[in-house]
Amino acid sequence: MIKRLLKAERTATVKAGNGCEGLKKYIGLEDMSNVNCSSVLRVIQDCGGLSRRQIADITGLSWGGMTKIVNKLFDHGYLVEEKSGASAGNGRIPGIIRINGEQHFVVGLDMNKTGLSACVTDLSGDIKKEYAAPNHFEDRKGLLGNVFHFLDMLIEDFGKDAVQAVGVAVQGEVDAEKGISVQFPGCADWRDVPMAALIRERYGMETYLEHDPDCMLLSELEHGDGDNQILFRMDQSVGMAVSLQGNILRGRGLLEVAHSIVVPGGKLCRCGLSGCLEAYVAPCIRKDGPDREAVQEMLQPLALTIHNMAGVFHADRVILTGDLIKYHEEFEEQLLSELRKLGEKEAENIIFADGTGLAVRGAALFAAEKVIEGIKV
Ligand SMILES: [Zn+2]
User: Fold this and answer.
1) Any idea what the Cα angle at residue 176 is, between residues 170 and 177, rounded to 5°?
2) CATH assignment of 5-99, among 3.30.413.10, 1.10.390.10, 1.10.10.10, 3.30.450.20
3) What is the mean pLDDT of residues 183-210?
4) Has domain 225-352 been given CATH number 3.30.420.40?
5) What is the pLDDT of residues 65-115, one digit of tens each?
6) Ligand 1 center to 239 CA (angstroms)
7) Distances in Å between the alpha carbon of 37 and those of 8, 45, 68, 110, 188?
8) How far away, in angstroms, is 231 Cα from ligand 1 center?
């Protein structure tokens, strides 16, 4: 299974080229060994199982260097070896080296206005267990109480020592770099809450916060081709994520497409402006399903946004997901026809994706990447 080939190639270029040779002067041998451990783990994570020869070829490490790194990772329980059973011709059976599925777990948590979900995965992203709970809250205290109660349950199952990091996908405005949830929908006194630090303090585990569309896109990158991809998460509002050459574009306040004006002088938006995309998307879902009239009014503004953003980011894949997209069959053809009016290309590149579990899985992947990046053995 070749996962995220782009990333594997990027890693390979960095290692073989190699840049790291020059770095040796500035960082100690021990650090260098950790950098190499990260590279080896990353290519195995990307590609699934690899032979020693493949690992050496892709990373550009010498045979001796690779052997040392792989043995270190075996010793610390990061890797396991499977004998394939078939002889290579010289009597030796080449082993396939994989990420150890029994140790070094990460948690992905999705904090959503309506529910909490989580999964525990190994470093290759294989899910060990999934959790879900409703999320009723009135204020910051209530929301934090729900999150901790939920995480307590999960940590009790696996034990603190088994979990290396937590990735959290959060709705609303997020400062991923600082681990701060700036605003959370439906929680009035939620302002600049240092979620990453709070979880880190309570459980003693490294914690990373990410905007939920970024997590969804990371999850989608696992099984999608395309150099540049954009994702729209559509429910009561619109969240957007972009990946350029396999890298998620991140930054506080970037890609706030919900309040871009799509109909000058159009529908009044809750932000005070008129004609924002959100003003057209928000009324589309009622409790009992989609509002057909609102959906009709939303299609052209949405097509315009997709067309413009796909042009700006030179996207060859556009993923639509979220609660509204659950009903895509009711408006898919019309949306594609609106897009065709603007140009053939975008209509061909649209994917309607079931958003179930995407954010939580992406959050776990983010955490796994951080663990691999910061490995110290
Ligand atoms: Zn607005």
Assistant:
1) 165
2) 1.10.10.10
3) 94
4) yes
5) 999 999 999 999 999 998 766 655 665 667 899 999 999 999 999 998 889
6) 13
7) 14, 12, 10, 29, 45
8) 19
Q: Ligand 1: distance of its center to the CA of 247 in Å? A: 28
- What pLDDT does residue 90 have? 60
Q: 169: burial class by Cβ within 10 Å (0-12, 13-18, 19+)? A: buried
Asked if 367 and 165 touch (Cβ cutoff 8 Å), the reply is: yes
Among 132, 92, 87, which Cα is nearest to 114's? 132
Q: How far is the CA of 172 from the centre of ligand 1 (A)?
A: 14
Report the distance separating Cα 168 and Cα 359, nearest Å: 9
pLDDT per residue as tens digits for the range 141-177:
999 999 999 999 999 999 888 999 999 999 888 999 9
Instruction: Report how far ligand 1's centroid is from the alpha carbon of 259 (Å).
Output: 4
Q: pLDDT (tens digit, 9 = 90+) per residue, 300-321?
A: 999 999 999 999 999 989 999 9
377 Cα distance to chain centroid: 26
122 Cα–ligand 1 center, Å: 40
Cα 268 to middle of ligand 1, angstroms = 8
Separation of CA 78 and ligand 1 centre (Å): 47
Q: What's the CA-to-centroid distance between 271 and ligand 1, angstroms?
A: 4
Structure token pair of residue 318: 């556009």
